[in-house]
Amino acid sequence: MALNGRGPRKHRNRSLASRWRFSCVACITLAMTSIACGSTGPARYVLATHDAKGAAYNAELSGVLRGVTNNDGTACVYAVSGDGTATMLDWPSGYEATDSPLKVVDASGRPVATIGDRVKLRGALRPDSPRLVGCPQSPRVWLVEGVNTTP
To answer: Would the pTM count as exceeding 0.85?
Structure first.
C-alpha cells in the first residue's frame, strides 16, 4: 500500500486530524482557564496621586466629577465647575479608580465619589500645572485632600 501513494497520504491526513483535535482541545482549555482566572471584581485604574501628608489645604473646589479610563490602565478623574471649567485632580497617595461604575476609592478600598457626583473638594490649586498620569495637559490641577459629595 505504501507504494501506491495512499499510505503516506492517510498518515498525513491522520496527522492533520490529530493536530486539529489538539488545537481545539488547547483552545477550549485556554478559554476555560481565562474564564476561571478572569477578574472577579471591578477593574482597577491608576490615578494621579500626591504625598502631601500634614499639609493644611483650606480651599474648596465644587463641581461635578467626570472621568475617563485609558487603555494603559490609568484613569483621569476631574471636576467640572458650574461655568464649565475642568480641573484635573491630583488625589491623595493610595487612591485609585475602579469601574462599574467608574468611581474613586481611598487607600482602604472604600468608595469616595462616583463619576457624576456633585462634589466639594478640600485642597488647593497647584501653583504649577504638571501633566498628571492618565490626564491631558491642563492649566488647572487641584491637590485633593478631602471629598464631600452633595445631593
So the answer is: no
